[in-house]
Amino acid sequence: MLRVMQDYKETFKEVLQAILPICIVILLLQVFLLGASVTEVLEFIFGAAMVVVGIALFLIGVKIGLLPMGEAIGAEMPKSGSLLIIVAVAFFFGFLTTVAEPDVRVLTMMIDSVSGGGIAQTPTILVIAVGVGFFVATAILRIIYRVPIMYLLAAGYGGVILLSFITPPEFLPIAFDAGGVTTGPITVPFILALGVGVTSVLGGRSALSDGFGLIGLASIGPILGVMLMGVVTAL
Prior knowledge:
It is a single chain. The protein is mainly alpha-helical. The protein has helices spanning 2-32, 38-76, 83-99, 102-114, 121-145, 149-164, 171-181, 187-201, 214-218, 220-234. The radius of gyration is 21 Å and the shape is flat.
């Protein structure tokens, strides 16, 4: 119990150290540049405190729930002996964690708003999620078959470069932002834990060289997906 409480304190301390400097800068700008009222300053302080508490509780939840669960699922996948099950489970969790990712929802909501509904939120989320799921499954297969990650990265970004010549200009910046927002607080811990779990039960694998790189591969999927969506939309 004492150990758990110590972990909680350390997490809150880390979050406070990360957020406090930017909160101080914003507070100074509000007071001296914007001339904010006392009520507005108090509202900001209250909101900042809620952010600290919320992020700390989320990170504690990740440590307690997401990471152990991801490692356990990753460790059990190879034991099934079925390549189809391994690929399906990897795709499934890559897809679901992306759909649940807050960063993805914020991006697609803003795209929907700015485009006046021309690039709708739900289809964009699904395209991004399918892209992540596909490349997470590919990354797990890379671990199993020991494919050098440089080959997959070269092929993935080679496809990005080629598609950039035929993708409508308005979809290009969206595609690269889509690749960035998938590396959020839900997707990253679970997918990394999944990879570490897979390597832990495969003989002769290194958790450092084989268990990592999944996020780098997974972020290619949304870029290619949104680019292809732009090409299809332009037809």
